[in-house]
Design brief:
Keywords: FAD, Flavoprotein, Oxidoreductase
Number of helices: 2
Shape: extended
Distance between the termini: 37 Å
Largest sheet: 3 strands, mixed
InterPro entries: Cholesterol_Oxidase, FAD/NAD-bd_sf
Strand content: 15-25%
Pfam families: NAD_binding_8 (PF13450)
Number of strands: 5
Cofactor: FAD
Helix content: 10-25%
GO molecular function: oxidoreductase activity
Length: about 100
């Protein structure tokens, strides 16, 4: 699927659009953070949900290992060898 032709709008906003003040700031968009942000926003409060990771839309996931390499982070213990993005979608460690 071509992500440029998806019917799903991006939910994230550019950092330039951040307001100088919010009623609540939630760090992390995992299950707990997402639910907390949603419930607080439903009360009418202004909420800023911060996420370090990337927003993924349907069609943006890699279909082969070659395509996944750019979104993969591998760390081999004390050798400090890294490949891919430091905040990759998949994080593999060997100690």
């Amino acid at each position: 699927m071509d992500p440029t032709k998806t019917n799903f709008p991006r939910l994230s906003s550019p950092t330039a659009e951040l307001k100088p003040q919010y009623d609540v700031v939630v760090v992390g968009s995992g299950y707990g953070g997402s639910i907390a942000a949603c419930r607080i926003a439903s009360t009418g409060k202004s909420v800023c949900l911060l996420e370090k990771g990337k927003e993924w839309l349907p069609g943006e996931f890699a279909e082969t290992f070659i395509h996944a390499e750019r979104d993969l982070h591998v760390h081999f213990g004390a050798q400090k060898f890294h490949t891919g993005m430091s905040m990759g979608f998949q994080y593999l460690c060997q100690f």
